């Protein structure tokens, strides 16, 4: 722990693990907390940092054989003021931008969130997700240009039924670790994977087989994580 009781991500974990910090940004009530909770299910340990009213969710995993400690930082509503405390961005290795497919304004605000992120963290990998697709799956037929414009991986997700949640967080963790290790071409790799993923998804959907297909976006619904022992 560094000063202020916050973790120091430059240091290794107690067992030599690589430590990464992932933050979520987006308007209030888009589902940031629910997405993290959904990913971690019952395997998380919330840890309160009272100074800035933040919750840290710790998660242990492995990336390419290396042990990784992930801290997902979750806010307690500061975003209502559209201005996060700088400590929220400090040392972050990846960011997930979240909007709510049932509220257009939350999508319109994406550029603002990205702008603020880039003021503090110009280089970190950023992923974008459209949440609450369970409310109306037809929304996945729409295209959302924001992510493409900024060359960000894009995911249709639902914290409610779990669609694509594991896929998105797994990619975010891989991106965070790659960023920490100075690996520059990693985002391209994710983008290439997703192009393929989307293609399969779209073609299966147009054949009316979306829900039974192994490559449909609902894949992750019953996914379990292999090393969530934190
Ligand atoms: N239908 C549906 N509702 C969702 C989904 N994700 C979140 N919600 C609901 O949306 C509301 C807000 O979710 P939160 O996770 O608290 O949103 P948040 O972004 O953390 O909000 P703040 O902490 O205020 O910034 C809650 O009532 C959730 O139950 C989803 O995938 N589908
Ligand atoms: Mg929240």
UniProtKB/TrEMBL annotation:
GO molecular function, one term: GTP binding
Residue stretches of biased makeup (Basic and acidic residues): 217-230
Region Disordered, residue ranges: 198-230
UniProt xrefs under SUPFAM superfamilies: P-loop containing nucleoside triphosphate hydrolases
Cleavable signal peptide: none
Top-level division of the source organism's lineage: Eukaryota
InterPro entries per the UniProt record, alphabetical: P-loop_NTPase, Small_GTP-bd, Small_GTPase
Gene3D superfamilies: P-loop containing nucleotide triphosphate hydrolases
Keywords linked to the UniProt accession: Nucleotide-binding
Family annotation (PANTHER family): PTHR47978
Family listed: Belongs to the small GTPase superfamily. Rab family.
Protein name: Rab-like protein 2A
Species, as recorded: Dreissena polymorpha (Zebra mussel)
């Amino acid at each position: 722990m560094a000063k202020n009781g916050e973790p120091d991500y430059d240091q290794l974990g107690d067992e030599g693990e690589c430590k990464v910090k992932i933050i979520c940004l987006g308007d209030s009530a888009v589902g940031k907390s629910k997405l993290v909770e959904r990913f971690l299910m019952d395997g998380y340990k919330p840890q309160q940092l009272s100074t800035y009213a933040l919750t840290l969710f710790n998660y242990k995993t492995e990336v390419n054989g290396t042990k990784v400690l992930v801290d997902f930082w979750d806010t307690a509503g500061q975003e209502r003021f559209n201005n996060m405390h700088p400590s929220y961005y400090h040392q972050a290795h990846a960011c997930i931008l979240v909007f709510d497919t049932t509220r257009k304004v939350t999508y319109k605000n994406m550029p603002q969130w990205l702008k603020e992120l880039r003021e503090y963290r110009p280089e970190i990998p950023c992923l974008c997700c459209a949440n609450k697709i369970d409310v109306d799956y037809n929304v996945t037929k729409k295209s959302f240009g924001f992510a493409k414009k900024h060359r960000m991986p894009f995911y249709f997700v639902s914290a409610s039924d779990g669609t694509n949640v594991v896929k998105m967080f797994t990619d975010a963790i891989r991106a965070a670790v790659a960023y920490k290790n100075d690996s520059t071409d990693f985002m391209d790799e994710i983008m290439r994977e997703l192009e393929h993923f989307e293609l399969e998804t779209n073609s299966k959907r147009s054949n009316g087989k979306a829900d039974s297909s192994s490559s449909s976006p609902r894949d992750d619904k019953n996914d379990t994580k292999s090393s969530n022992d934190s």
